[in-house]
Amino acid sequence: MAARPLLTELADYRPLQAFATQLQATSIEALFAADPARAGDFTLAAAGLRLDFSKHLLSRPALAGLLRLAEQARLPAAITALFDGDKVNNTEDRPALHTLLRATSSHGLDTEFDEVRKGRAQMRQWAQRLNNGEQSGFSGAVITDVVNIGIGGSDLGPRLVSEALRPFHGDISCHYVANVDPADLQDTLLELDPGSTLFIVCSKSFRTEETLTNSLAARNWMLNAGASVADLDRHFLAVTSNLQAAADFGIPAANCLPMWDWVGGRYSVWSAVGLSCAIAVGWEHFEQFLAGAEAMDEHFHGCPLQANMPALMGLLELWYCNFLGAGNHVVLPYDHSLRKLPDFLQQLTMESNGKRVSRDGRQLAYSTAPVLWGSAGTIGQHSFHQLLHQGTLLCPADFVLPLTTHTGMPEQHRRLVANGLAQSRTLMVGRSADAAREALLQRGLDEAEATRLAPHLAMPGNRPSSVLTMDSVNPSTLGALLALYEHRTFCSGVLWGINSFDQWGVELGKEIGTRILAQLAGESAGGDMDPATRRLMDEWRAAQG
Ligand code: F6P
Q1: 510 included as an active-site residue
Q2: What sign for the dihedral angle of Cα 311, 312, 315, 316?
Q3: 266 lines ligand 1 (CB under 6 A)
């Protein structure tokens, strides 16, 4: 990608600041009142998803300004570059080809697509083999449980997809271990029989401390249960781009599924990193998951900006972050099966766009990725929604609202939907002090008490939210949903002028962690550490007895 002008250098940046100031003096409700077509017009549909972005502090002229800004930032050319396989990851000199992982044609990237197809064939074989009961362990028992050992992108995506698609699961149970805290592995293994357990060591680099440590412990667990070293081939698969390291660990090439340097970990659930999901839901459902994502890719690639859902969501993120001062973004899936969505999106958005220099290394003088947080509705309503409604922070929200349930309990699900819609509306309308006072009088309080309490019940409202609906959570809509947020993240990165596909900021902590580990193990002295770290290491030593 050629160097682009930075956000603050774009022609529409200043006019948009003026729009933001004007809009801060109005209300979303006033925008609805002045524009009867708003509820219908501020909606988009793509790949089985529908986005209602009408409850935003955004007027038609401001929206038009944002779309011009996207043109000025050359977003359309950046989208083309992404799909063409240009080296959009300029600091690592690589393309970012996650869209190819769910493509049904090569888009001119024949060599890479060939590898993708081979990888898919391997995935299908393993998924079918396991689901057909054709893989047995060292004791002769058929494999019934699969444990994915990975972290970050090698964990969060598969874990989310597997949990979200629980109604589609077959007979094999999938488990996920990520943390280097031994309790994570220990808790998981407690319920498993070594003879019928298969581990997938999922690590693009095969160098990640947490994953290697847990894999070694899993290997020992298997050996201690009576498996021989030769038996381990029945119990360990790897997904990696580092075949040598996998072989050194003891996993032969025949048990390795591929990963490539042109796929970022957080964009990799579509590859063999998603093998545990393909095993859990079966190959046909996994293909539907890929197809849903591909449908979103086609929309993103082909649709003009004004109707382009990921682009629009990226612009909204920019609008709140850079023009209205929101430093966070809350995602509220009103569906228990999507409760891991905020975790997944945290890595996707904050590892991608938590950057402070431009693609060409210039220091940025504006905010980038807001903190993303959230949890499943209605759980959050009884904890942090207080802050959403009456706190001092502006928290733009995404409500993710599947319209039907797989539970067979539609009446109870209706309550969930009512709560989601109520929260989105309440954020917008709030309640004035007068209305609060009136409500208190109605409850029988006297004038003095109603006046005293009214400010505590008043809610400013005018708090923005999107509502993203789909008929149900199924493989296809889930694929579309994850691809939507991937592309939205890319759009925001382009608008901020940053490279969304590297993650240099995670390196130094790993290096220092390695040095501290050596010092805790007594293998080196702690002289190079600061006094606070030295004191804490002493405290740890004392606790070891
Ligand atoms: O440390 C961050 C990170 O590199 C993520 O980007 C990645 O998803 C995760 O670690 C796991 O990496 P790997 O798949 O190589 O073990």
Answers
A1: yes
A2: negative
A3: yes
